[in-house]
Amino acid sequence: METKGSKISAFMEETFVPIAASIGGQRHLLALRDGIVMIMPLLILGSFAMIVIEFPVPAWSEYMVSAGWGGDGYLSILMNATFGITAIVAAYGVANSLAASYKRKNGDAIDGVPAGILAIATFFIVNQDGGTDSANLFVAMLFAIITAEIYRTFIQREWVIKLPPSVPAAVSRQFTALLPGLVILGGSWLFIAVPLSNTESATISAWLNNGLFASLAGIGLSYPAMMLGSFLEHLLWSFGLHGSAIIIFPFFEPLWVTSTAEGTSIFTWAFYENNVWMGGSGATLPVVVYMLIFAKSKLLKGVSKVAIAPGIFNINEPVVFGLPIVLNPMLMIPYILSPLAIVTVMYIGTSLGIFPILDKIVPWTTPVFISGFLAASGGIGSRLMAVFAQLICFMVSFLIWLPFIRAWDRINLRREAGE
Known about the structure:
The chain folds into 2 domains: about 180 residues, no CATH class; about 200 residues, no CATH class. The protein is mostly helical. Helix 15 crosses helix 20. It is built from 20 helices and no strands.
């Protein structure tokens, strides 16, 4: 007899999963993801420099400033070369990825490099105030998409300058970009930069950042939005789809990266990455610890031994596919609920001023508790409270997972005994 749970699972597999998979493969979302992924190494390297400058020991901070390293000193050069160019790198990455996803008439892939270069030039035209950091990340990605779409249209319709076959391919490719480049850069200058130059906003960046993007940020940087994002992400993971790549990276990460740099919102990239992804998606590190100590079935014992080392560094594929969590109605429940509980606990604690705002991006493989200490600003007390917040989240996740993982352990123990 088919149970209610199996009917729901079948409905999800037949209806929801194909739609989600189609969204996950949408070329514009993939391009946004690629652009964000491209800037992550810069953000991490810049964070290392920030940690050195702002290490929570007053004597150290004073020494760094007096020695010319802190403040506007030597390390600021590294900060400007990492945090300071994220919008440029994202513009190139998004346009390059999007243009390269299309094909010419003959079936060959379009070269995305010229589109990436034109996207950088377009960004500087529409953003005359020169801000190239994460504050203008959305502007950079928006015009990167527009640039790539115009560029690929010219290439696919062959509205390009064609040189004789005797001309070297490297030279011919550069002339191919001239006509689309003329339209893209000329149009950006004539219809956007010039008209706005005498207005109050002065640039499209200021106009968008203070208008549309400010409204979107107000919605995206909210408790309901993060709860919705987390729910959808882990629901997709539960059916074997990369929920992070489909939901978090294209829709939420740009907002959270920007808010991390500004340090004015509770909801930052560090908030999500260092707590909700504790041990990996679904906050599964507490589950691995439980299995390692208390599990009785061979399956859970084996998975725990394989998963503990990766789990410490926030990699949990052995748990997601080994237990398995994917397509397992019993374990899908805590896998989805645990992150939602963590978001709620962190939001309440930070809103009340108990937990500090996490405004430093650290490498995603940084073990829990260390990541909390490094992600917070302020002195030792503030950073220790961030560690305490992670400890609370660990315990909350452990308690949510406990009845489900114990039941799954008993089921597998009976199976192994042949019952």
